[in-house]
User: What shape does this take?
Amino acid sequence: NAGVTQTPKFQVLKTGQSMTLQCAQDMNHEYMSWYRQDPGMGLRLIHYSVGAGITDQGEVPNGYNVSRSTTEDFPLRLLSAAPSQTSVYFCASKPTGNYGYTFGSGTRLTVV
Amino acid sequence: AQSVTQPDIHITVSEGASLELRCNYSYGATPYLFWYVQSPGQGLQLLLKYFSGDTLVQGIKGFEAEFKRSQSSFNLRKPSVHWSDAAEYFCAVGVYDYKLSFGAGTTVTVRA
Assistant: This one.
């Protein structure tokens, strides 16, 4: 039982490049979310999913796309990277019911 | 829109002393309430949650939190801190338990 696995752990991108941050969970959780963490701002919700095939926008969705074709995977796509997207990205999942999220260990992204 | 305020950016406490971290939220109804802890370079770990019922909730690592509806607060406490409690603590609030807003965090330093 690996929990929530995020890859890569570190990434450097050039402005304008695209990439996908991977997130996979092996707990059969229905709900998954992507957050970004910036100093002094806590975590801000980018996108979330309430089940396979269903996604919705969070607080800061611009510049990011998601899809949820399976229960296990919830990739986050950066369409055209900008320096403002330099951040630590966390993926999280939770089951149905009164439970909190389980977080991955994060991806530290730098856009130069 | 809901919002979460953690008034204290940084708290220093002596080992063995008590700790209280403040969290205030802005929302018309009673939201779902959570406290998470993040050690340096790690993901977030759930300490405790409040959904309904008893307003004093117990969590892991000896932490507890009290929900006060009249004050829109959900403060986290620990009677006696250990050096391993040095970390960043986040309060999170949600209308739905799968769509959370996080506070900016409180960094706790423990001095010997």
